[in-house]
Queue: 3 jobs
Job 1
Amino acid sequence: MLDDKNGRFGSAGEEEARAVGGGEEEAGAIGGGKDEVASNGNSSKLSKAYKKLEEEEEMAQSSSATSASSRTASFILRILAFALSLISLIVLATNTVIVTDYDYNEAKFRFQDFYAYRYMLATIVIGTAYSLLQLVASICNAISGGEGMLVLAFFGDKFISYVMATGAAAGFGVTVDLSRVTGGTGLDMSNFFEKAYASASLLLLAFICTAVLSIISAFALPRRSL
């Protein structure tokens, strides 16, 4: 009987030991599952971080490409604005005509004899000086790699473009009025009027370039804040 009891206790101990071993294996499996879940979670986080970095790099590359193209366009437009306003200034400043009436009396007309042309000349001088200043600033920024004062350029471009627009409008208006007034007098002032139209047209083109520059400056401001 003692042997039977010992055999029972032995078999019971073995079963209990097996149960304990099975529990340990189950616990190990659970622990391994937890490790696997944790590793999967870490890998997903890393993949998300890598994707975010790639997106940021793509945005930075696209932003740098856009910035470079806008700088090139701005530089070209500033050269055009300066050249057009300078030529307009030369044409208007040299606009003088000598006419002869029916009695062979000669009369000399100059642009400064009319207040509208004086105002037009003032707007051209202001626009030319501003375009030259911004052109020099653009060259300096290109050499140093900086962006310059975008806020000042934005408001300056808008103000100067409005000034140029009013100057061109004044030039066209006074030329049309003078051509109508002198049409029946026999005074040949066609050369004077052609130069005035040419100067006003060049000033109008310079205004368009400056207006486009103000739009480019407006788009550059939020990109810089980012």
Note: The chain has a mean pLDDT of 76.
Job 2
Amino acid sequence: MAVSCQTGLSYCIHPETTSGLRLDNLRVGCKSAQRLIVASSPATEAAVTAAEPLTKGDLVGSLASGCKPKEKWRIGTEHEKFGFELKTLKPIRYEQIAALLNGIAERFDWEKVMEGDNVIGLKQGKQSISLEPGGQFELSGAPLENLHQTCAEVNSHLYQVKAVAEELGIGFLGLGCQPKWELKDIAIVPRARYEIMRNYMPKVGTLGVDTMFRTCTVQVNLDFSSEADMVRKFRASLALQPIAAALFANSPFTEGKPNGYLSRRSQMWMDIDNDRTGMLPFVFDDSFGFESYVEYALDVPMYFVYRDKKYIDCSGLSFRDFMDGKLPRLPGEFPTHKDWENHLTTIVPEVRLKTFLEMRGADVGPWRRICALPAFWVGLLYDEVSLQSIIDMTTDWTAEERQMLRNKIPATGLKTSFRDGLVKHIAQVVVKLAQDGLERRGFRESTFLTEVAEVVSTAGVTPAEKLLEMYHGKWGKCVDPVFEELLY
């Protein structure tokens, strides 16, 4: 499984950081102090004019190429976090972010990823560190075999980041939304693709730019063995994505006060761009498969094409026209496989299909909850008994009911009404299925679900509700203590 960075609004796979240091994929720039600096330049660019035009069958085949036997299934975890000045609590500027990236590269032997003269990320083996539009620091983990490896990777990353950040007076916050500062206070990462998105988003929604700059998530990428297995996992995870949003709800503050939601981040995603977000009801159609997703993706408006080391603004244009050589910005040119991969990463529903499935519904939190999110989904989707139980449980949920959960849970969490009960009752069953699934895997991984199990065992009190209780109590209606409470 190729685990790529993506987060907030799926800003990856980065064309400049796709796979190892192969000369056919990356142009290697100067080498300083035995450390490679990777230039921002995709390999397929050189072969654009020679490439045969892609067919729809090629696009379907690219998704199907992700099928792999169970013994090769892996776990890829990604998480984002807010950097802030320890003395002032202010968001860190790009100059401070660059110093941090340079420090990590020098001390811990990471390769720098550059866009022009700006460092925009790091690579080490199959891990990468990237920057979201507002400077959110993201680790895209390697594809790993078990959750012990996943949590060890998270711990190692946080150790390295803290070792350099503390010397620079920087801390990192594990919260789903920026709790204190306004949009105007947030740094702008100097990346051309983000500028294209910033300009386009206000045309299609009211909260897209805010989501780019002031939210953080934790995600897991998981594999499938066949088209049928993909369909089952896609349906199960889409149905339960609102439940995950409730269990991990951790964004109750905006600009220094409660914002009326338990997961403001989740609510914001409903007003970004309806063409590329949402609960994808067609996934539950009897005919759904790889081709159905390709048809959907072809109709999602484009953001950009990368050529000659530049991002060409193609926002709102049609990938179908590109397939026919009729893209107005590149008349007569046809897309490469890399163009298709990049386009897929600009599509950001609650669960996303590439050559693996991405679970995208959870707020980030403290490091234990970073480990808990992959544990939750691995226990449900990588165990056949638990997966079938979820399918049986959710098979008669209607599209309207699934959307109702998506709409209401950001505000009411596990206390949301569903049929003749509450979502917390569903969550209790689901968490038990996840625990049982982890036990059957035989890796002694169920301990990583402790944080989630505590949520369902405490009358459905979400992490956000605990923060609100402290805000109204010992914090004296001030959000500043959250920077210490959720400091990594």
Note: The mean pLDDT is 91.
Job 3
Amino acid sequence: MSGVLYILDTEVPKLLARQQAQREEELGQSQRHILALQEEIEELERENRLHSQQEAMLKEEVRKMERMQKREGVDMTYLKNVILKLLETGEVEALLPVIGMLLQFSPEEIQKCHQAYHSSTEVPPSPSNDAPGSTARSLFSRFSFS
């Protein structure tokens, strides 16, 4: 019986040590696999963000091309008359949407026009505005023709 106890005392710890070493090796492999998967996820997320940016750029380019194509069919005489009316009367709020539609302005371009108009109306009138024959609302008064 003492021989069996001797074997149990010496062989069982060796067996348990081998099992523990094998488990630690499996754990290390699993951890390396997890890290590799996390890196792959990060790379795929970067690619996804890049694709989203490219998609947004392409959509904007398509919208720009559609606006350009629509501009090709604009009646230039009508556009000329609308611009003249705008310059003569200064009715920006009424005529800017018409010009924007004819020229297929983007929402950003419409906003820039509105901002430019509102900032120019905040400028104090120049002495040329008081000249005979000029109307207070005419946009021609903002230009000097020499």
Note: Helices lie at 2-71, 76-89, 92-102, 107-121.
